[in-house]
Specification:
Blueprint: H1 2-11, H2 15-27, E1 42-44, E2 47-49, E3 53-55, H3 66-71, E4 76-82, E5 95-98, E6 103-106, H4 115-124, E7 132-136, H5 145-156, E8 162-166, H6 181-197, E9 206-210, H7 216-228, E10 233-236, E11 256-259, H8 263-277, E12 283-286, H9 292-300, E13 303-308, H10 310-315, H11 319-333, H12 339-342
Parallel strand pairs: 3-4, 3-13, 4-7, 7-8, 8-9, 9-10, 10-12, 12-13
Antiparallel strand pairs: 1-2, 5-6, 6-11
Length: 348
């Protein structure tokens, strides 16, 4: 209700300014009460998530409001992408609402305040409860991007419930090349070695975020490597560079497309990775999820967890709690006693 009142004001500003205003509002909210672990609790990679609905990376790039998001009823929050050094990202404008399509196009380019700024905030919240994912990236002008990921792993591992290696953004030139088989093996070996060097009570599981714009051979190779390297999960998927039929005047903007037009492609890629992994690797469904029905379809297709971002542009952060309530009803309707029972039933 509150967001519906605020949305006209937020939408009167350009997309990036509106987003910054939303973050400022969240910074004023208390972050003490967490979502209770109830019937939707699910275990993934040795972590118990109180419910399977989380916030995707990109919303809270600099780890400013993870506790406020968790207090809004999300089962987990993923911050970032964070890079070793601060970077301003691509020239503005670089974030566009496609209102007619309930979509977003962004070409942000990993804009963030850098590792040290994020670490200062993460150090302040050390010891607080809640599942916190930290999404790590490489600087655009880095001479050694794999070394960047290793550095970020060492720095962030002590603060993360899980770490996400993001090599799927289309807005950093050449980044998606790290999804190629040889490069991916080298990258993951470096990240796993860096995690072992990090000072942490326990080594956080490593999640890998992949693009939806993959060929079948790429999917098979990534699935095989993820299983071989014992990753915690695959996040399927990031934004797409493809362009389905769109109505908005911003349809021709370059960058990654997310929101409703991505839903079917992301759903299919999830099915593809479920098949390629044989159900041996937990999957996180992202892309075009805007309702409990969307989330439930993703779970039944193989996702143990789901994440939101673009739908919150149009519905507000209260959408997470709405989806959680709806999932409880759908789970009961279909005769399941846990999320784990429902994962992949439509594909196995």
């Amino acid at each position: 209700m509150l967001f519906r009142l605020l949305r006209p004001a937020l939408f009167s500003f350009d997309s990036e300014t509106g987003h910054r205003m939303a973050i400022r509002i969240l910074r004023t909210l208390p972050g003490s009460q967490l979502a209770p672990a109830g019937p939707l609790a699910v275990d993934v990679a040795g972590v118990t998530f109180p419910n399977p609905v989380g916030v995707a990376a990109g919303f809270d790039k600099d780890a400013e409001v993870p506790d406020a998001l968790l207090a809004m009823g999300f089962g987990f929050a993923e911050v970032g992408s964070i890079t070793p050094l601060p970077q301003s990202g691509n020239p503005k404008p670089r974030l566009f609402r496609l209102v007619e399509d309930r979509a977003v196009i962004n070409r942000m380019g990993f804009n963030n305040g850098g590792a040290q700024v994020a670490l200062a905030r993460l150090e302040q919240r050390r010891g607080r409860p809640g599942v916190l994912g930290i999404n790590i990236g490489a600087n655009k002008d880095s001479a050694d991007r794999i070394a960047d990921y290793a550095t970020m792993t060492r720095l962030m591992a002590p603060h993360a419930t899980y770490l996400t290696v993001n090599i799927s953004s289309p807005n950093t030139p050449g980044l998606r090349a790290l999804q190629d088989e040889g490069a991916l093996i080298e990258l993951l070996d470096a990240v796993i070695a860096a995690r072992a060097e990090a000072i942490a009570v326990s080594a956080p599981p490593i999640f890998l975020k992949v693009a939806p714009d993959l060929e079948p051979a790429d999917i098979d190779a990534i699935a095989r490597i993820a299983i071989d390297k014992k990753l915690g999960a695959l996040i399927v998927s990031n934004t797409t560079i493809s362009r389905p039929a769109l109505q908005s005047k911003h349809a021709g903007e370059t960058g990654g497309l997310s929101g409703a037009p991505l839903r079917d492609l992301a759903q299919q890629r999830l099915r593809d990775f479920r098949k390629a992994t044989g159900g041996a690797m937990p999957l996180v469904g992202v892309g075009g999820i805007a309702s409990a029905e969307d989330a439930w379809a993703r779970i039944r297709a193989g996702a143990s967890l789901v994440q939101l971002y673009s739908a919150m542009v149009y519905e507000g952060v209260g959408l997470g709690k709405q989806i959680v309530r709806g999932l409880e009803q759908l789970m009961q309707r279909d005769g399941f006693t846990s999320i784990a029972e429902a994962v992949g039933v439509d594909t196995d």
